[in-house]
Design brief:
- This protein is an all-alpha fold.
- It folds into 2 domains: 1-62; 65-190.
- It has helices at 2-32, 34-61, 71-81, 84-92, 96-101, 104-119, 123-142, 160-184.
- The radius of gyration is 18 Å and the shape is globular.
Length: 190
């Protein structure tokens, strides 16, 4: 469990700097240079992601069950997950979806984490998905008092929403049909 916690810490600390102390982040980026800051940020977050995945897999080998979700929660999770991939893709394909939601990746993360908390009840699940949920909620709230840095994205066009919806639904179908099992070892359709 300590590996998972260390991974969560290393992943979320750099992702949270702008939420809690944007002036410090800007000073560090100015001192190191924006590219070097982004490189350091990415390296720490990548190490955290690797430790998080490894630690979560270790914790799944000897799970500590906190609660047993009823089977209906699994079905609710399937429904909640339906817009997640579309929202993720809409982050990088600006259109009406992106414009109306403002921060589609954060909303996708909130939905993803909440859906997984409904369907999973081990301590590792609560730590992993709970951390993502709390972070995404804090980041989304912080956007009301800070300016979001631009993300790399396709040029805004009228077809971007169609791209996001079609690609998002295709990814959702792929996860249902085996991609989730291949990536995470958990089959969705049994």
């Amino acid at each position: 469990m300590l590996v998972l916690i260390a991974g969560l810490f290393l992943f979320f600390v750099p992702h949270s700097v702008s939420i809690y102390n944007e002036p410090w982040r800007d000073r560090m980026a100015a001192r190191l240079g924006e590219r070097q800051w982004q490189g350091l940020y990415s390296l720490v977050a990548l190490i955290g992601l690797i430790l998080m995945i490894y630690g979560y897999n270790l914790a799944r080998q000897a799970p500590i069950v906190i609660y047993e979700p009823p089977l209906t929660m699994r079905h609710i999770t399937f429904v909640l997950m339906l817009p997640v991939f579309t929202l993720l893709i809409a982050t990088y394909t600006p259109g009406r979806i992106h414009h109306s939601i403002k921060h589609p990746m954060l909303l996708a993360t909130l939905i993803w984490a909440f859906a997984h908390l409904l369907a999973n009840g081990t301590l590792a699940d609560l730590l992993l998905f709970g951390a993502f949920f709390v972070w995404a909620a804090a980041d989304r709230m912080s956007m009301s008092y800070r300016i979001q840095r631009p993300l790399p994205a396709l040029p805004a066009t009228g077809t971007n929403d169609a791209i996001a919806v079609v690609a998002g639904l295709a990814l959702y179908a792929g996860f249902l049909l085996g991609l989730h099992h291949w990536l995470f070892g958990v089959p969705l359709l049994k």
